[in-house]
Design brief:
mainly alpha, two-stranded antiparallel ribbon, 50% helix, 105 residues
């Protein structure tokens, strides 16, 4: 296997492991991979795509005074995690959040 083929092989597993709804160790074992090797490749993969974490910092914008709660809920699903908002989040925050998720996918 060439160096490029090896990198492609592992990066595909990294993408799949990050999208899987299980721990990285369980993903590795389920696919016949050594968990430590997968972990090491995940570090390289995250550096290659420019991120070091799967987490996105969430800071709710302060609610303007006098603003009433909306009866409309917004639910966002990210890697099997559901986030439900009673009021609509700030439009710029939502755009940044969606853009960040697109970068990490």
């Amino acid at each position: 296997m060439t160096r490029s083929e090896k990198r492609t092989f592992w990066f595909r597993h990294c993408e799949a492991a990050l999208a899987a709804e299980q721990s990285n160790a369980n993903y590795a074992r389920a696919h016949g991979l050594e968990p430590k090797k997968l972990y090491n490749w995940l570090v390289s993969y995250r550096k290659a795509i420019g991120t070091t974490s799967n987490f996105v910092k969430v800071q709710p914008a302060p609610k303007p005074e006098g603003m009433k709660a909306s009866t409309t809920n917004l639910t966002i699903s990210v890697n099997g995690m559901l986030m439900t908002f009673d009021t609509l989040p700030d439009a710029q925050w939502l755009a940044d959040f969606v853009a960040q998720m697109d970068v990490q996918s």
